[in-house]
Structure formats: C-alpha cells, structure tokens
Design a protein that fits this description.
Chain lengths: ~325, ~525, ~500, ~290
C-alpha cells in the first residue's frame, strides 16, 4: 500500500519533470534566432516555400497553443518531424537509441563493478587501499577526451588490439532488439559477438571511467563509516572474517549513498556519451543530437531531451526502488 | 587459577590521538574463572569498554594502537594470535553485548537472522529470545531492527550474545558492556536473573561492565573497580561494598544515590500559587507504520505545580513523560486540554535528558548564555558579569565560558545547560532525566545542585526520572505515570512508605540497592 | 611523441575494397534531397546525370547518360539523346520516361528539394522516343546546361521505383535504397555508422576499380586520421594543413590536390556599423591576403584574384584586388566594436576568423567573433539588425557558370528565391540587372561582359571580399591511383577510375 | 554532470554516538601530501590571476610562427595562430578556476537558501520546493548548458549560469536533509524554548551545523566543475574565440593532435594536473571533516 503510493507519487513527479523539461526546451528554442522553417525549406527556398514550411512546422501559431498541440501529439508517441533528416523524430530515435543504450548500459555495468571493487578494496587499510584511493582521485580528474585519445593511440594504433570506432561489422545482427550483444547471443553468432565486444570495449571503458571513480569514492567512504559502526563490531564479535562481514553487513548498509551517486552518474554518462560518440564514431543519439543542435532541429532536440529526461527519471526511480529493497527502514512512509 | 577462561596480563593499550599517545589501559591484569560473574565498575572513560574489547580481540583504534601484555581466552592469544584462531574463539566461545543497543543491530538484516548469525539453530534462537524476555519471539524474528523499541533491541542483542555456534549453544564467556542502560528497572531485573541462570545452568562466565553498583551488587561474584586505566581494587562483592579499601571506591559508594537511604530533611513549601497548570492534557501522535492513524500518548493528564515545590514524575519508558514536559515548555501543542503558565512565572525552561546535545555545538558557553541574557533584556555591558555569576551559581569555573560543549565533560555540560536555563530567569525549571546519563558521582552532584537552586532561588522544579533513588533525594511530591496516565500522586514520604498502585509497588521492588549486600 | 606521420603504413588493406570516411551522416540517400558535399561522394557513385563535368577538374562539360545534346538558337529548347545501354540497379533499362520523371521529381512539393531552383525555368518536358528527352525553358538561361552537368544537378532515378512509391513521392523508400544507374549500388547501411557499396555487373561504363566501397561516418578529423594510420581507411580529406604537409613527406601516403570552386571569403554588411564604404575598404585594405592564405591554407589554396570562383569568368575580368595598407583603419574604426561571424563547428573557419580578427586588431579595429549555427546563417538576412557585421565563410557554387555564384550570393533583391545566400544583403540594383542580363544572353561575349560588370560593381561596393581559392586535398595510401575529380564537387572523388596499384 | 559529489545521504544520518566511536579504525591520517595539496589549492586561488598577468604574452597576442614546437623560446610552443600556448593555458586556467569557484559559491548560496527554507518549513512548502529542486535535478545537465548557451549566446558567463542552474539543487538537497535532522535536535528545541525568533534559531542554531557537510561536498566539487566547464568549452560552448579557454584550446588543438600535439596536450595535461590537485585537496578535506 505504502509502496504503491510511493510509486504513484514518483510517477506523478516524473511526468511533472517531463512537462517542465519539454516546456523549457520549447521556450528556449523559440527564443533562438534560428528559423527551423528555413532549415526545412533549404538555403535556396523562395518566400512562399518558406511560408509553407512554417505552416507545416506549426510555427505560425502562438507559442502556447503550439506547445499544447505538441504535448498532445507526444501522448500518442508522436515527436514530430526532424527538419534535417525529414524522418519522424521517433523513428530516428528508434534508430539511434539502441547504440547509445548499449553503450551506456555496458558502461554503467562496468562503472558499477569497477566502483564496487575500488570502493571495497579502498575501504580496507594498507598500501593497496592507498593506491586505490590515489588511482580513484587521479582517474576522476582525467578529461575524457585525453583518456580517449591516449587509449586509441595505444590500443588501436600502436598495439592494434582493438578497433578505433563504430559498432562493428554492419552486417552483424541488429534484430530483434538493436542491442548487438543480445542480438548476437540470440543468433548464436560467436564471431559477430566477439566483433561487437571488441568495438564496445574502448568507448565503454572511457565512458565508465569517471563514474566508476565517483562510485568507488563514495562507496569507500560510506563503507568505512559502516565498518566503524557498532553493528559491524557486533558482527565481528560473532567471529565473521573481514570479507564475510563486508559482504553480509557492510555493503548492504553502505550501498545507499553509492547507489544515489550511481543514479547521478547515469546523467553524467548520458552527457558524456556526446563526446565519446564523437571520438569513437559511435552511431548513437549523441551524434544525432550534435547534428540536431548544429542545424537548430527543434523537434529532434526536444525528442532527444524527452527521451534522455525520461531515461534519467526512470533510472532515478529504479535507484530509489533498489534502495528501498536494500534498506528496510525506507519501506515505511515517514 | 590456571583453569581461567580468560586471562589478562599487564595489558597496556595506547591510542594515538591525532599524533599524541594516550594510554587507555595502563597495565591491567585480570583472570576470570569458569562460572564466575565479574562486575567491572568505574567512572566514565576509565577504560572498561576498551578492556572488554580486548577480550574479544577487537582492538579499537586500528593499526596505530599499541598494545603490550597478554590477553588469552580459552588458551588463545586474542591480541597477537592469528586472526583465524581469534575468529574461531569469537564464534564458539565468546558472547558480546555492546554498550549502545540502538546501534548494535544491522538495520538491513532481520533480527532472527542476526541472532542465528553464528550458526545456531532456529529453535535455539527462539529459546534465547524467550529467555531474554522478548514477547512473542516467533513473530519478532521476522522483524527488522527499526521495528523494535530500544529495550527490545537490547534484549535481541543479548540473545545474539548467548547463542554461540557450539552444540551447547551457550558461550563460555560473555562480555556484557552496560547491558541494561536502555531498560527500565523491571526488564533490567529480568536480564540480571537471566545472567545468573546462564551461570548456574551452563557454567558460563560473565564480565559485566556497569556503572551501577546496585546492579553489580545483585549478581556479581567479584567486583573490579577501575579508574583512569588502572584497576584500583578488586575482591568479592560483599567485601568491596562493605569494606572498600581504595579512596576511589569509597567515593563511588558514598556518592551513590541509593533508594534505601533515609529521606532528606523535608523543606517546608508554603502552599503557594500554582505556577504551572496542566489540565486534561491529551496528545496524539501519528501512528508509525500506519498512514492516517493516530496513537494516543497522553490520555488526559492533570498536573499542578506550585511555586517553590519540586514535583518528580516517575514512570516506565515510553509512558509519555517527556511529551508532557515538552507540552509544558511550549515545544509541543497538546491535542486536547490546556497548559497554563501565569505570566508572572515566565517562560518555563527545559533541561534536556542529554545536556550535551541540548547545547548548540558550535557556540561557546558564553555566547549561549549571553544570547539568553540579551533576550531577557540584560544590557550588553552587564552581561559578562552576569555570565560569570550564573556559572558560579552552578559551580563552574568562569574560565569555562570560552569553551565549546565538546570540550566539557558530561557533568559540566549538564551544569552549563542549567546555567543557560537560569539565564532566562525562569520561575519553573523542567528537567527531563537530568542524571540518567551520568556516572554515580556526577549524578549526585547534579541532583544536589538542583535541590540547592530550588531552596535558594525558590524556582519550581518539575523533574522526570525513572530512578526512584533520584526522586527520593529531590522530590517534595511524586507523581507516578504509566501508559499516558498519572496513576498515583502524593508527598514523597507517602509514596515510599505506602505505595498504593501495583505499578508503584513493582517499581520499588525492582529498584536495585546496595543495602541488601552491604548489611 | 605523437608525431605520427612518420609511422609506416599498416596493412595495405583488402585489394578489391576501398574505405572512405565522411564527417557527418547523410540524413537520406535521396538524390533529390542530399545537398551536402561530403554526402555527394556516396551519391555520385550510385546515381548519374545526363551530363557531367569532366573528371579532370576542368570546367569542360562532357556527356554522361546523354550521349549528345543540342540547344536551339533561341536558347529555349534543349534536346538530349540518351544512351541505350544504361540499366538501373535491378536490371531495367533506362528510357526517357525515367529522365522526365527524375526531372519532374525535383520540382515536386512533397520532395521539397533544395535543388528545385535548377528546373524552375522549365516550361515543359517532352519524350518523343525512348532515347530522346526534350526540355523547353520559359526564358533563355545561360546556366541551364551547367546545372544539368552539376554534381548536385538532376540525377536519374528508376521511374518504376517512383511509381511504386508514388504515395510519398518515394521519399521514404529512397532514404535507404538506391535506384540509380551508377557503377555502385547500396548493399547495406547502418545509420550513423556507414554504407557498403558494391559494384554493379551490368554498369554501362565498365567495371570500376573496386568491387566494394565502404563509407564510414567518422565525425572527428583526428579520428579519421588515426584510422588511416591504423589501416582501416584508404583516403581521408578535410585535414588541417600541418597534417597534409606532414603526410606529403611520408612515402606510405600521398596527398592528392585538385582545384575546386570553393572560395574563402567575407560578407560585409552595408548598413549599420559598416554603412560607410570607406570603412569597408579600410577593412579590406588591412588584410594581407598573401600572408593570410599562407597561414591558413599553406600551399593548399591560391590567393584569390577574381570576385568569382576559378574558371567562372575569363581571367583578368571581375578582378578583386587591393594594396595592403592598414593605416586607414585606425581612425575609421575608432570607437566601434565590429562583429565577425563564422559557421560554428568548422575548425578552419574559426582559425581563419581568428587570424582576421588578429590582423584587424593589430590595425586598430576592435572585432569580436561570433559563432553562427550552420543553418541559422540563412535566417540572418531577414533579421539584419541583429546579424554580425561580417561573416566569414568558405562557399562554393553548384556549377562553374557565373550565374550560380552571383545570383545566390550577390543578388540584392531577395524575393523569388534570388540571393538566398546573400546573408548580409550586399549587392546593388545595377549588379542585379547585370546578372539578369547575363542569364538571358545567349552569346558568350555578352554573358562574360555582364557577369564581369556585376563582379566589378560588387567589388566597388566592398560588400564581398574574396580571400583564397581553395584546393581539395586528399591524403591517400600511396598504392591508390587514377582517381578523378569534378571541379564543382568538393571533397568528392570519381570512384569509377580509382584503383589500387597492382590490381 | 557531477562526478565528484559525495552522496548527500550519508550526511543526512545524524550520528548519535559519542565522538570517539566515530573514529574510524585505522583511518588514513592526514598525510603531508594532502597538506601540500591544500596549500597548492590555496596558492592557486591567489596566484593564478597574478600569474596570468605575469605571463610572457597576452591572451591573443601573436608572438611567433604558428606551430612552433615547445622549446626555449616558448615553453609549451605556439598554436595555430602563433600565440604562446603557455600564456594562454595559464590565462585560461585562471578564468576556469575562478569560474569553478563562482559556480560552487553561487550553488551553495542558492542551495542553502532553498534548502534551509524547505527544511524548516512545513509539508507544503517543503514539497513544493523539493519538487522544484528535483525537476532541476532531472534536467540533463549538459543539455541545459547547451540550451542556455544557445539562448543567451556563447560566453563564459552564460556557461557559468548554465552550470549553476544544474548545480545548486545538489546543495539544496544536502542542506535540506541536514536541516531536517538538525531542527529536531535538542539544542534547537532549547533555542526555541528560549523564545528566539525563527530567523535567529535558523541562522545561529541550525545553519552553522549544515555548513560542514556543505564545505565537504563543495571541496570535492571544485575539480568536477573544472572538468565540466572544460567539457562544455570543448564541445564549443564557451567564450567565443580568440578567448583562451582550456576546453576550446584542447578542442582546437585536437585537430592537430598528430601534427602539433602540444597544442592539444598542453591544455589537457594542465587541466588534468589541476583537477587532480583540487580533487586530492577535496579528498583531504573530506577525510578530515566528513
Ligand atoms: N579508538 C579510540 N581512540 C582513542 N581513544 C580512545 C578510543 N577508544 C577509547 N578511547 C579512550 O580510551 C578511554 C577509555 O574508554 P572506554 O570506552 O573504555 O571508557 P569506559 O570506561 O567504557 O567509559 P563509559 O563508562 O563512558 O563507557 C577514554 O578516554 C576514551 O576516550
Ligand atoms: N514525535 C513523535 N511522533 C510519534 N510518536 C511519538 C513522538 N514523540 C513521542 N512519541 C511516542 O510517544 C510515547 C511517549 O514518548 P515519551 O518520549 O514522552 O516517553 P517517555 O515517558 O519520556 O519515555 P522515556 O523514559 O523512554 O524517555 C512513546 O511511545 C513515543 O514513541
Ligand atoms: Mg564504555
Ligand atoms: Mg523521555
């Protein structure tokens, strides 16, 4: 009952956030000097063609009206037409989303695992912990583009172990999900799977780097605090070894802050994917968005923002739910 | 005594306090025989907990702590020995109850699992919970710690301590650090009896760390007195209590407020004006776990406090005493009924149970007092003198004014809080458990201070406690509360001599006293 | 540490496959819609027009799908004779029906083609037989043939495909399918990542040098270079001058240079801050064009001498020259803050603008830089007051005919689709008249004279300052030979003749 | 958007235990390396603007041939215009550094005000303010930056505004969480029972208690903000050229990363070093106070 209510209120606030988001995007876009009708009609368009394009885009109506129309269409999954690709924005997003999703999810998993390892090792005393702490701080300070180019130089150009960019062989299966890892598993295609993994390694690593460090740092400090608590002392007094106590008592209690930071890191990664996709020629939403922005493609920008905003809100929701599952104290309404 | 379960020899523990070494134990030696209950008493900070932890092989302070000497449990070196052996001993032979029950249970693990953590069977866990006086243990094992009250949580951790992995299911040595602080006297009594039974039935040894000599007197075979990291005195319980050798022990015994003592000389209170009238006070709180539902905490309470008198409210934990005081102080609005203070009496000042946390941590004592003085309209130039005067009144050195609360000891904080209350020149002082957190010596000092203040300044006191000894020492009138109602009320002599309500009788019976042992 | 030009070539790559890169994805493969010069690399390999520019980078127009053409004396009727051996992807033989449908499609509202202006002057089409295609214009247009030959001009599409997908004029189908007559067809594509082209067995022009061409989308120039070095690309373009020079010295690679119609130039507002022609002239005089060209383009561009791109008008006419003299600027620009816009995202445009800004600053004029979003630039003319005082850009016309250049950039009366790229509304009525006269004329001498006059007028107005004529520079593996290049098609190679040595 | 932040949750739990139990077993003592870091950070703050002024060349001054390799004449070489890279890096760094501090300072101020008001208020105001905060929090940071800059025009100030817009909610959440804990503590009741005004209670008896965790988080954030600012400028959202900005310099230099690597690597490397120093300092502060 309480849980359901919590979920309901989350969903409500989620919708609120999306409305704010779409409105903000719309408002700002309308303030821009750029003219999407001009983009649609093209550089050599006649004034009549321009007016027609303006009407087609609904730019001749007052702002609020247009916005409400837009919201209405949104409810039907209609994100409008991209003026650069002349496709439905929703179908464009459908095309590019799986690539970004695959990248971000793999990077997210890497970041979680990396953060967990860094956090747990770093929480113990000794030189190893010191080294881990040093690495975490240093890693969190490295500009993405620097790391990306260095890794490319070493692993692609000099060692030749990994490919430089793209998602791999264009013929690799991209059905039914568009997520190549899964698709190739479904098709039991080992070679294509290896190719997919090879292409994923570098961009996912670079994307995961700073989130892993952030998660590791937070986990380390909260785990250290947890390991100093009385209940951990009681558990040790019952004869548990350090790893056993960390596993049974420490992590569960320390994971909360690390999870919230992990949720935040998702938004970091969504943002970071713009640079990563550019550097690794990754055919995803980030590149689509850059193009859309370069061309003042209003519907495309709004569409991507909505999808990203939705993803972010969803992740926050998942994180919250996970926290509730982990910490029984959060299960009751306060 | 080569067959001792535990042996401590010349134990020195030296901590590193931001670079400067600090010796918490300065060469302590102690043996505990099988089936023996040893009570470790001493002032706060004397090293009792550190000693207990060393027995468990859990050295506080990490790798910068220096330890010399030997600690053996069942023949295993608990300090220098291999971690694996230490774990085996902890798992099979030791039981530990830590000082703070509220924080020693993992909030993310069901209590049943925590009791069984060392591998005991479900049945053994149930039995242990029953033995520790947990009602409905079959249901409770599925609870999360936060769903239990403080007292229940303490009982659960005791149950965890007495269920070891070995077949007997009972450890051979239990280290119990202040195991009854969160319990009211009746449950405390139950636990003490449980310890006695564990020794009798299973031959279990117990190191009972406590600051309450009364508890020690009830079951200990031997008393060990510590102060400043050294053992001052030890011997059979009766001897130590009857013929204390060391000056420190004597002081401890003298200052203890005991329920068995005579009543202090009655002070005449003129039947004056009522300065505080609570009539038909009802208070509802939203019920936890249930949205929208209410829980009634106070069921129509009447209290009349007269000028210059000292009314003590006693009652079990959770019966609504603090809530009543907060209503009187205007910090809480009653759901029904009225709280009246005539304007002449001024705003009642509340002195909190935990004095340290009632002082703003980042402000010096001086600024906290001056702030009150300013609010009371004292001109700026007079304030320093007035601060010094107030501090003098509570027996604090005027130089303490510059200190922040964390630089003061518990007793000093309690006095500073009283001084701060006095700065507002109140007609009424409301005191919530003013001494329960203090050791015997400090407690006596604070109680005396309050009594003196009442006699000298004529301030009215409304004081809450669960310790009848405190009530006896300071009260002119006593009101007994249970379940949100006042069930008995009367002059102090009358309550002690002829309690009428069964609950009052139970309270008097369960209150520990040294008198039985000492005589 | 990263001086990489000296690291040797990795594996030469598959003998029958060519790997190229484009820096941004094509929104669609529809030949009537793509108006992006990099994308044209894919489209010119797949689609062909009736005529074409000569692949030796000259201004000559040569037959392609039309084996010959005739123009009537009045300049109104154009008769194209079509080849009979041309097939589409899928095997159908091309007829004049296909040609007409393709021309008509350019004007189709539903297609919303930006190239529709090319066929705007057409009065009617006729197909007397399967191999004859006749276009009748409403008024003479001296540029018509050059537009038909333009790499951006009308490309011939299989009319079966068009009729089958008539509902939306095949715009959806042609997004990711090809239906052309070129040497290659599209065999697979991944949006945002790349295209695989395979050579067609029944291509009329003979087997191309490579059986497969893969075109990868790689946004970043440095990453492209990295892949070239790593052996995953054969050709890259759009690289900075320093890199070109470095690779030119490396025996594993060669740098191919071709002239283009691309011009590095400035638009100047003739209103507001820059209303005074003296100030515009002073700004121009402050530019040391030789030094500028050398700094930004090194040896990969020539200093501009004419108002038009190369080969548009006879040498020595429509001259754009001045003597460098920064002295006048200080007093004329005193107290003014001028703004110079450049198209954001183009590293070299930014670099050039910074260089100009520095020159002017040294001469005492305060100039601020403003990045303009790629497509916003077209909207500047309708909101002139808030537009920057100057715009730097590198621009190119669709054909070598001077009308394409002058009409788009200089025509001051922007109604009727003229002056679409006249962002800051320069030009004069007299220049407009000269352009129109040139377009309507039918003899070459008159045409040349009219456009030269227009160029001189604009030069005098100092509303356009041309800086350099840019070359195309491709870094390619040294084993590649024989690539062709069309003058009006920047960043594009003719893939029919390119091959790997020893293959 | 916010890599280095400490989750506010750990800070929300008031710790009832006596001070000595909070002593983490064997916690890493503040080593001399961290002290040095703290010092360097303090020095950076003061010295960077001075250093920027003392540089051999100005921000836009052309001092030599483009792409001169690092050497005696120009320690970090020259860029594509022939400007001194070292001078530009230092000047750009000084601006970013102060920008980062400005972002955090304004984030703290806005967050503190909103967080305190929400924390002290009843359900309704609290809910409204926190929903607002959540909405801002859910805005994808880099995108907001894009939009703000697109709307207001590219300038360093506008980038700062954009980052502040997405940064303050963190502080608001931390402050609100702490205030809600603090306002239930006995010393606040004590102050209330003395009859002080709410303003006084908040400013003297509640807010100073929040400051500590805010300082801890803020100190960890300096490095993160530096990187965010550089990232935005890298993708072209910063001061227009020819202004010296670390990110845009790295981006411009990136084109020549093979022919003139120093143009990109110098700003990137210096950014890395400075972010690391400030992160180590933040780590030290956290270790001491957190
Ligand atoms: N980890 C530690 N680091 C530094 N000093 C410590 C540490 N643990 C305990 N101490 C100090 O050792 C002394 C003894 O502490 P201990 O906890 O044993 O006192 P105690 O006798 O149990 O007091 P109480 O009755 O208040 O619980 C105290 O002064 C305490 O401050
Ligand atoms: N703010 C609150 N919300 C809900 N319930 C409350 C609140 N404050 C107190 N209670 C409940 O009211 C009851 C009475 O609490 P109160 O603190 O007055 O007890 P007490 O008699 O002082 O107990 P103790 O001796 O343990 O301090 C308890 O059951 C407590 O759980
Ligand atoms: Mg203790
Ligand atoms: Mg109470």
């Amino acid at each position: 009952m309480g849980l359901l209510k919590q979920i309901a209120s989350r969903v409500a606030s989620m919708l609120g956030v999306l409305v704010v988001l779409t409105f903000a995007v719309y408002f700002i876009q309308r303030q821009l000097p750029s003219d999407p009708a001009r983009v649609l009609a093209g550089r050599t368009a006649s004034p009549e063609a321009l007016a027609a394009a303006r009407e087609q885009l609904g730019l001749d109506k007052p702002f609020l009206l247009e916005y409400f129309h837009y919201l209405g269409r949104l409810l039907h999954g209609d994100l409008g037409i991209s003026v650069t690709s002349r496709n439905e924005v929703s179908s464009d997003i459908g095309t590019y989303l799986p690539a970004t999703l695959e990248l971000v999810v793999v990077a997210g998993v890497l970041a979680l695992i990396g953060g967990l390892i860094l956090g747990v090792i770093g929480a113990r005393d000794g030189w190893l912990a010191g080294a881990v702490r040093f690495v975490s701080v240093a890693g969190a300070s490295a500009p993405t583009f620097l790391v990306a180019i260095l890794l490319l130089l070493v692993f692609y150009r000099d060692l030749g172990w990994l490919p430089a960019g793209g998602r791999g062989d264009a013929l690799a299966a991209s059905e039914p999900t568009g997520l190549r890892l899964i698709d190739n598993l479904v098709h039991l295609d080992g070679a294509a799977l290896a190719d997919t993994v090879n292409h994923l390694v570098l961009p996912a690593l670079v994307l995961a780097l700073s989130p892993a460090m952030a998660i590791g740092r937070v986990l380390r400090s909260s785990l250290r605090a947890t390991m100093a608590t009385d209940f951990v002392r009681s558990a040790s007094a019952k004869g548990g070894s350090w790893p056993a106590v960390v596993w049974r008592h420490g992590l569960r209690n320390a994971l909360g802050p690390a999870l919230s930071i992990a949720g935040v890191q998702v938004s970091v990664m969504l943002g970071g994917s713009v640079i990563i996709e550019m550097l690794f020629s990754w055919p995803g939403l980030g590149n689509y968005l850059s193009d859309a922005i370069a061309n003042s493609d209003l519907s495309a920008i709004a569409g991507v923002v909505i999808v990203l905003g939705f993803a972010y809100v969803l992740i926050t929701f998942v994180v919250d739910t996970l926290q509730i599952l982990i910490d029984p104290r959060l299960r009751e309404p306060v | 005594m080569s067959d001792a379960v535990a042996r401590i020899e010349k134990l020195v523990v030296q901590f590193d306090r931001s670079g400067t070494p600090f010796r918490a134990l300065k060469g302590v030696s102690l043996d505990i025989a099988p089936g023996e209950i040893v009570a470790l008493v001493g002032e706060s900070g004397s090293g009792k907990t550190v000693l207990g932890n060393c027995l468990l092989g859990l050295v506080p302070g990490g790798h910068r702590t220096r330890i010399t000497g030997r600690v053996e449990v069942g023949g295993t070196d608990m300090v220098g020995g291999p971690e694996k052996d230490k774990r085996r001993v902890r798992r099979n032979e030791l039981g530990a109850v830590f000082q703070d029950p509220l924080t020693s249970l993992d909030p993310t693990m069901r209590v049943g699992k925590q009791v069984r953590e060392r591998g005991a069977t479900a049945q053994r866990a149930l039995d242990a919970l029953t033995e520790c006086g947990v009602p409905e243990p079959g249901q409770r094992i599925r609870y999360w710690p936060h769903q239990l009250s403080g007292g229940l949580r303490q009982r659960v951790s005791i149950a965890g301590a007495i269920t070891a992995a070995d077949p007997g299911g009972v450890p051979s040595l239990i280290v119990a650090d202040e195991p009854t602080t969160a319990l009211d006297v009746r449950v405390q009594d139950q636990i003490i009896k449980l310890f006695a039974r564990l020794r009798d039935d299973h031959g279990c040894s117990i190191l009972l760390i406590t600051h309450d000599l009364g508890v020690a007197a009830q079951i200990a075979d031997r008393i060990v007195v510590m102060s400043e990291g050294e053992i001052r005195e030890h011997g059979p319980t009766a001897r130590v209590l009857r013929e204390p050798q060391h000056a420190y022990t004597k002081k401890l015994l003298e200052s203890r407020l005991d329920i068995a003592g005579p009543l202090p000389p009655a002070s005449v209170v003129e039947a004056g004006e009522p300065v505080l009238t609570l009539s038909e006070v009802v208070k509802d709180f939203p019920a936890p776990h249930k949205r929208g539902e209410k829980r009634r905490v106070l069921h129509g309470v009447d209290v009349r406090l007269e000028a210059g008198e000292s009314l003590v409210l006693v009652g079990e934990s959770g019966c609504g005493k603090s809530t009543l005081l907060r209503i009187a102080a205007g910090l809480e609005t009653p759901t029904g009924g009225r709280a009246d203070v005539p304007p002449a009496a001024g705003r009642p000042q509340l002195i909190f149970q935990d004095a340290r946390s009632s002082l703003t941590p980042w402000l010096s004592i001086n600024s906290q007092l001056s702030e009150r003085l300013a609010a009371a309209g004292v001109p700026r130039k007079d304030r320093p003198a007035r601060v010094a005067e107030l501090l003098g009144q509570v027996g604090l050195d005027a130089r303490m004014a510059a200190s922040r609360p964390r630089q003061l000891s518990g007793g000093q904080c309690q006095r500073a809080a009283i001084a701060r209350a006095l700065a507002s020149s109140p007609g009424i002082l409301l005191c919530d458990e003013p001494v329960s957190a203090l050791d015997a010596t400090l407690a006596a000092q604070v109680v005396d201070l309050l009594d003196d203040l009442r006699r000298s300044t004529g301030v009215s006191l409304l004081l809450v406690t669960h310790d009848l000894a405190v009530a006896k020492r300071i009260a002119t009138r006593i009101a007994v509360m249970t379940d949100g109602r006042i069930v008995e009320e009367g002059p102090v002599e009358q309550i002690f001599a002829s309690p009428a309500h069964p609950y009052t009788k139970q309270l008097l019976e369960a209150s520990p006293s040294l008198a039985a042992v000492a005589s | 540490a990263c001086g990489s030009g000296d690291s040797g070539t990795k594996a030469t790559g598959p003998a029958d496959q060519l790997r190229l890169a484009v820096s941004s994805d094509l929104p669609t493969l529809d030949p009537s819609t793509v108006y992006q010069y990099e994308g044209n690399q894919v489209l010119t390999a797949v689609y062909e027009g009736l005529l074409s520019y000569s692949p030796d980078s000259t201004e000559a127009i040569v037959p392609q799908l039309a084996s010959k053409y005739d123009v009537s004396k009045d300049g109104l009727t154009y008769t194209f004779t079509l080849r009979d051996d041309v097939t589409f992807t899928g095997g159908r033989t091309m007829t004049s029906k296909d040609v007409q449908a393709s021309f008509e499609r350019l004007a189709d509202k539903k297609v919303a083609s930006q190239m529709s202006y090319m066929v705007m002057g057409v009065a009617k089409y006729a197909t007397p037989d399967d191999h004859t295609f006749v276009v009748t214009l409403a008024a003479p247009s001296s540029s018509f043939l050059s537009l038909v030959a333009s790499p951006f001009g009308p490309k011939i599409i299989d009319s079966d495909v068009l009729t089958k997908n008539a509902a939306d004029s095949a715009t959806t189908y042609l997004k990711d399918h090809t239906a052309g007559t070129g040497p290659y067809e599209l065999t697979s594509m991944t949006k945002g990542q790349g295209y695989e082209l395979t050579s067609r067995a029944d291509y009329w022009g003979g087997k191309p040098g490579f059986a497969k061409v893969s075109v990868k989308v790689i946004g970043d120039a440095a990453t492209q270079l990295l892949q070239l070095q790593g052996g995953d690309l054969d050709i890259v373009t759009g690289q900075p001058v320093a890199t070109l020079d470095q690779f030119a010295k490396n025996s594993g690679y060669k740098v191919a240079e071709y002239p283009t119609l691309q011009k590095s130039m400035l638009h100047l507002k003739v209103t507001g801050n820059l209303a005074d022609v003296k100030l515009r002239e002073a700004l121009r005089a402050a530019i040391d064009r030789d030094a500028f060209t050398k700094q930004i383009f090194g040896t990969h561009a020539a200093v501009s001498t004419q108002m038009y791109p190369v080969k548009n008008v006879p040498a020595g006419t429509a001259k754009d020259d001045w003597t460098t003299d920064p002295t006048a600027l200080t007093t004329l620009a005193a107290g003014k803050t001028l703004t110079l816009g450049y198209v954001s995202g183009h590293a070299r445009d930014k670099q050039a603008s910074e260089a100009l800004q520095a020159k002017w600053a040294a001469a005492g004029a305060k100039v601020e830089l403003v990045a303009v979003q790629g497509s916003d630039i077209y909207g500047l003319s309708s909101n002139l007051a808030s537009a920057p005082d100057m715009i730097y850009e590198t621009a190119y016309p669709d054909s070598t005919h001077p009308d394409t250049w002058s009409r788009l950039f200089w025509y001051s009366d922007t109604a009727k689709g003229n002056g679409a790229l006249n962002y800051l509304v320069g030009g004069t009525k007299e220049a407009d008249a000269a352009i129109d006269a040139g377009a309507a004329a039918t003899d070459q001498a008159t045409i040349d004279a009219d456009y030269a006059k227009a160029g001189d007028l604009v030069h005098a107005q100092a509303s356009y300052i041309t800086l350099a004529d840019m070359n195309d520079s491709f870094i390619m593996r040294s084993d590649l030979t024989g690539g062709g290049h069309w003058l009006p098609a920047p960043l594009t190679l003719d893939l029919r003749t390119l091959k790997r040595a020893g293959n | 958007m916010r890599p280095g932040a400490v989750a506010e949750q750990s800070a929300e739990v008031a710790d009832p235990r006596p001070r000595r139990w909070r002593v983490v077993p064997g916690r890493v003592r503040s080593g001399s390396a961290e002290k040095i870091c703290l010092w360097v950070v303090a020095l950076l703050t003061v010295l960077l603007p001075i250093a920027a002024r003392l540089m051999p060349a100005g921000e836009t001054e052309i001092v030599g041939v483009p792409f001169t390799a690092p050497g005696a004449g120009h320690l970090l070489g020259t860029d594509d215009q022939g400007r001194d890279v070292l001078s530009r890096v230092v000047i750009g760094l000084s601006a970013s550094w102060w920008g980062a501090i400005a972002v955090i300072a304004s984030g703290v101020v806005i967050g503190a005000v909103i967080g305190t008001v929400a924390g002290m208020s009843g359900r309704f105001v609290d809910t409204v303010l926190m929903r607002l905060t959540d909405a801002f929090l859910a805005l994808p940071g880099p995108l907001v930056a894009l939009l703000v800059v697109a709307a207001l025009g590219p300038s360093f100030r506008n980038v700062l505004i954009a980052v502040i817009v997405t940064w303050w909610p963190w502080y608001a959440r931390i402050v609100r969480g702490q205030v809600r804990v603090l306002r239930r503590l006995p010393h606040v009741d004590a102050a209330r029972s003395a009859g002080f005004s709410t303003f006084r209670v908040v400013t003297r008896h509640v807010f100073p208690g929040v400051l500590r965790s805010v300082v801890v988080v803020a100190s960890m954030d300096v490095g993160a903000v530096l990187l965010v600012l550089a990232g935005l400028s890298f993708v072209g959202l910063g001061a227009p050229p020819p202004a010296a900005e670390i990110g845009s310099m790295a981006a411009a230099g990136f084109t020549y990363v093979f022919s003139a690597p120093w143009v990109a690597l110098a700003p990137a490397g210096v950014l890395f070093a400075v972010a690391m120093i400030s992160n180590f300092a933040g780590d030290a502060v956290q270790e001491r106070m957190g």
